[in-house]
Amino acid sequence: MRQVAILGVGQVPVREHWDTSIRQLAIDAARAAMQDAGVERVGSIYVGNMTSGNLNQQRQLGALVADFLGQWGVEAVKLEAACGSAGSAMRQGIIAISSGEMDAVLVIGVEKMTETPGRTTTSALATAADADYEIEHGVSFVGLNALIMRRYMHEYGYDRRDFAPFAFNAHANGSKNPYALFRQPISQKIWDNGRIIADPISLFDASPIGDGAAALLLVPAEKAPEAVRVIGSASAIDTLAIHDREDILRLQAAEKSAKAAYQQAGIGPDQVDFFELHDAFSVMAALSLEACGFALPGDGVKMAMDGDIFPGGTLPICTLGGLKARGHPVGATGLYQLVEATLQLRGEAGDAQIDGARIGMTQNIGGSGATIVTHLLQKP
Fold this sequence. Notes:
The protein is 35% helix and 18% strand.
């Protein structure tokens, strides 16, 4: 199996792109990645997206994007795994390169979600849950995460305010990222005034949706010896419905995918310099830290309270704002994480640069933990 390198990266700012189609968002990010890599032709294109059929009346995104990129005749498909779509697309790109099947692969994540009414967008997002046993009973996606957060607080004795450092970190880091949706730090007073969305989740415990696209161009590592390398990549699933799990406070898919990625890379959690985790909700950030071996069960929130997750801490997370501040265009999020991790390892993260970073980890979650994709990247 060949090792994979990330030769090019591209992204567009996460915004409400009223005048830009989903097609154009994907093309802009893809062209930026191709230009960054100096590559004009690829063998395959994998597009991560969740809601284009529901919200944009557009399927066949693979063919659509390949056509308008001038990549006629290539293999091009869309992959869907809810909010884990982009990470899953990355997995397919890695497999295509490492197997020897392809020598240049373009991976894109794209989502356009802000032009539809809120109720329509919420209904589309709810399809990440179990249609028969969760959605049918009227529970929203944020409602499911509220149940998980309430259980976490009950089991480990935390108060709702104890989760605030996750938001403080994300917004402070997002203020340094020109591609982020929210670019101002927040105070405790601002956090306290955040309205409750689904008790105990407040406005600052939940990530905002947005329109956006990010892309990577992958090649065999031997063809790009100076490029950032993929040293670990794995995906795993848990039950779709949270009531079917042995323990709703345990992200087993995160545990399994992280363990497999660590084994591939030949490293442990203590060698990871920063972690671009999937902070769609504050409680998911805590559970990810615990599942990946950075904290014991119940100590994920304590890591945040102790400042370990901030720049200069033992494990900086969401170094360019994460989902909370950069924004969460769901099917594109996994690629934004990978672009940001690559920029960190290149030393191109600007004011958000983590000094001495050599190994970065990303983790993309679909649904309430049903699909989880973990990647480990290394500076050459």
